[in-house]
C-alpha cells in the first residue's frame, strides 16, 4: 500500500524549514511521497496577510521541483470556499493508499477548532512535529483532551529505532526542522534584507521578481 503524507499550509512563503522537515519525514515514515498542499483560503488566517494563492502555489512548485518523493497538489486552489483539511483528505482518499497528515504541535492542540476533527483523524494518521525549542507534553491535559475528542486509540506513539511505524495512535516525530518563520522572512523582504540560506534561490528570485511582501500586511 502506498504511503503519502499530506503537508498542508499557507506556505507564505515556503522555506528550508518546511523542506527539511518533509525530507526527514520521507525517510522516517518510509513514505512514497510527501504531498504539498498550499491552502487557498486557510480558515484560521487573515487572507490580507497572504500572497495570492497562485503565487504561493508557484513558490512551492519551484521549491519542490526535482526532489524525488516531493509532489505538489493544487486541490485546494481549484475548490471554492475555505480550505478545510477534512475536504482535502476525503478527496485524496484511495483504497490502495495510506494517508498521513503532518501537523505542528500547536496545530494539534488547536485541532478541536477544525471542521470535523474526528473525521480528519479517521481519514489520515496524524503526525505531530513539535516546533524547535517548544516541548510537546503528550501527557498534558490539553493533549489528552484532543486525543479523547478525536477518538484515536493507541495514544501517542513514536517510530522505533528500526523504522517501524506503529499501527495505531498519533505519531509524534522528532523530525529535523529549522528555526525559520515565514513571518520573519516577510519582514526581511520589507526591510530589504537578505533571504540567502533561508529559502531556495528560485523562491527568493520569484519573490523579488513579483514584488511580494514589500508592503506590511
Architecture overview:
With 217 residues, this protein is α/β, with parallel strands linked by helices. The chain is built from eight helices and seven strands. The chain has a single domain (2-180), classed as HUPs (Rossmann fold, 3-Layer(aba) Sandwich), CATH 3.40.50.620. The protein has helices at residues 16-28, 53-64, 85-92, 105-109, 117-123, 141-150, 182-190, 201-209, and strands at residues 2-9, 33-38, 70-72, 97-104, 125-129, 156-157, 170-172. The chain has a seven-stranded parallel β-sheet with strand order 3-2-1-4-5-7-6, sandwiched between helices. The radius of gyration is 17 Å and the shape is globular. The chain starts with a strand and ends in an 8-residue tail after the last helix.
Short description:
With 217 residues, this protein is α/β, with parallel strands linked by helices.
C-alpha geometry: globular
Total number of domains: 1
In CATH, the homologous superfamily goes by the name: HUPs
Instruction: Name the poorly predicted regions.
Output: none
H/I helix tally: 8
Give the SSE order as H and E letters.
EHEHEHEHHEHEEHH
Write down the Rg. 17 Å
Structural class: alpha/beta
How are the strands ordered across the major sheet?
3-2-1-4-5-7-6
* Major sheet size, sense and barrel closure: 7 strands, parallel
Mean pLDDT: 93
Amino acid at each position: 500500500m502506498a504511503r503519502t503524507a499530506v503537508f498542508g499550509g499557507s506556505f507564505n512563503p515556503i522555506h528550508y524549514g518546511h523542506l527539511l522537515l518533509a525530507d526527514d519525514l520521507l525517510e522516517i515514515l518510509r513514505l512514497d511521497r510527501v504531498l504539498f498542499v498550499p491552502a487557498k483560503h486557510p480558515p484560521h488566517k487573515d487572507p490580507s496577510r497572504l500572497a495570492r494563492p497562485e503565487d504561493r502555489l508557484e513558490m512551492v512548485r519551484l521549491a519542490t521541483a526535482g526532489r524525488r518523493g516531493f509532489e505538489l497538489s493544487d486541490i485546494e486552489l481549484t475548490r471554492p470556499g475555505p480550505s478545510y483539511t477534512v475536504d482535502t483528505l476525503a478527496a485524496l482518499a484511495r483504497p490502495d493508499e495510506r494517508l498521513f497528515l503532518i501537523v505542528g504541535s500547536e496545530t494539534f492542540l488547536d485541532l478541536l477548532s477544525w471542521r470535523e476533527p474526528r473525521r480528519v483523524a479517521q481519514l489520515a494518521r496524524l503526525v505531530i512535529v513539535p516546533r524547535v525549542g517548544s516541548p510537546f507534553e503528550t501527557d498534558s491535559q490539553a493533549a489528552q483532551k484532543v486525543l479523547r475528542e478525536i477518538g484515536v486509540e493507541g495514544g501517542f506513539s513514536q517510530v522505533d529505532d528500526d523504522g517501524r511505524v506503529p499501527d495505531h495512535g498519533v505519531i509524534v516525530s522528532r523530525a529535523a526542522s529549522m528555526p525559520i518563520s515565514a513571518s520573519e522572512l516577510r519582514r526581511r523582504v520589507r526591510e530589504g534584507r537578505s533571504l540567502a540560506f533561508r529559502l531556495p534561490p528560485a523562491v527568493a528570485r520569484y519573490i523579488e521578481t513579483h514584488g511580494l511582501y514589500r508592503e506590511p500586511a
